[in-house]
């Protein structure tokens, strides 16, 4: 299994800034092999970035998607708008979508099913809040989000990746420890192995939440951490490159 190191730029970078970044970054990583690299820019930059990523070793991702092909859904982006731009991955159920925009498991599931139907590879994000962790509910929350998110795709789970992103670690500078990450990743691996009846070997379990160029080499050593979904540190091409290099050391 090739690990996936993914950048989620969130609502950052104009088109001009995105182009500047890619020009630098694609040169930095051009010799990198053995790991898959993905960048999910803003929707407005997708088209320009898509052109720049042609014939590179960097895949393109989107940060969200609606579950209908076309129609009266003001402000939404459809799967065919993404596939037209050679988008390969789509991040779904991110905690910011869940907590700021009120996305529920049922909606996220519809998006996951549609993404797969259109040949996109979803990265389903799950993770507990600090309160849920302190109440000892981490595994319950993660299990609920996964079971609901993949409903209908149980035997085809190899078509998706999962990102464990504890809400308390996102954008806070407080990453999960290696032990905390490993504990939940191991739980997720057993869960999806069980749900899919062993068809989970191509599903990567990524960690996200304050990953940076200093902690990446430790976190990637956890046996069930199979890549990263990086926010803040991915905004700097040099830092993101260092995270990728750390991931090659395992
Ligand atoms: O939400 C994240 C990636 O999707 C993580 O964000 P940070 O790396 O800024 O904590």
From TrEMBL:
It catalyses: D-glyceraldehyde 3-phosphate = dihydroxyacetone phosphate. Substrate binds at residues 8-10, 171, 210. The active site is at 94 (electrophile), 165 (proton acceptor). Its main location: cytoplasm. It is found in: Cytoplasm. The keyword Transmembrane helix does not apply. GO terms for biological process: gluconeogenesis; glyceraldehyde-3-phosphate biosynthetic process; glycerol catabolic process; glycolytic process. Pathway: Carbohydrate degradation; glycolysis; D-glyceraldehyde 3-phosphate from glycerone phosphate: step 1/1; Carbohydrate biosynthesis; gluconeogenesis. One of its GO terms (cellular component) is cytosol. It is an enzyme of class 5 (isomerase). InterPro entries: Aldolase_TIM, TIM_sf, TrioseP_Isoase_bac/euk, Triosephosphate_isomerase, Triosephosphate_isomerase_AS. Coiled coil: none annotated. Keywords: Cytoplasm, Gluconeogenesis, Glycolysis, Isomerase. SUPFAM superfamilies: Triosephosphate isomerase (TIM). Its EC number is 5.3.1.1. Pfam families: TIM. GO terms for molecular function: triose-phosphate isomerase activity. It comes from the Bacteria. PANTHER family: TRIOSEPHOSPHATE ISOMERASE. Belongs to the triosephosphate isomerase family. Involved in the gluconeogenesis. Catalyzes stereospecifically the conversion of dihydroxyacetone phosphate (DHAP) to D-glyceraldehyde-3-phosphate (G3P). Homodimer. HAMAP family: TIM_B. This is Triosephosphate isomerase. It comes from Sulfurihydrogenibium azorense (strain DSM 15241 / OCM 825 / Az-Fu1).
């Amino acid at each position: 299994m090739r690990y996936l190191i993914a950048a989620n730029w969130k609502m950052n970078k104009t088109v001009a800034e995105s182009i500047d970044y890619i020009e630098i970054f694609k040169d930095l990583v051009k010799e990198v092999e053995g790991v898959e690299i993905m960048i999910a820019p803003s929707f407005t930059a997708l088209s320009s970035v898509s052109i720049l990523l042609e014939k590179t070793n960097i895949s393109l991702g989107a940060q969200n998607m609606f579950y209908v092909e076309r129609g009266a859904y003001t402000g939404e982006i459809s799967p065919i708008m993404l596939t037209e731009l050679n988008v390969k991955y789509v991040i779904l159920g991110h905690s910011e979508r869940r907590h700021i925009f009120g996305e529920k498991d049922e909606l996220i599931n519809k998006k996951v099913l549609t993404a797969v139907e259109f040949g996109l590879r979803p990265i389903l994000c799950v993770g507990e809040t600090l309160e849920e962790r302190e109440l000892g509910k981490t595994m319950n929350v993660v299990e609920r989000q996964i079971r609901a998110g993949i409903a209908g795709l149980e035997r085809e789970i190899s078509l998706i990746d999962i990102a464990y992103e504890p809400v308390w670690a996102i954008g806070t500078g407080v990453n999960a420890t290696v032990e905390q990450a490993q504990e939940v990743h191991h739980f997720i691996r057993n869960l999806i192995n069980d749900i899919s009846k062993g068809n989970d070997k191509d599903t990567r379990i990524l960690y996200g939440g304050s990953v940076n160029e200093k902690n990446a080499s430790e976190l990637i050593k956890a046996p069930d951490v199979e890549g990263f979904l990086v926010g803040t540190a991915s905004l700097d091409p040099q830092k993101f490159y260092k995270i990728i290099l750390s991931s090659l050391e395992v």
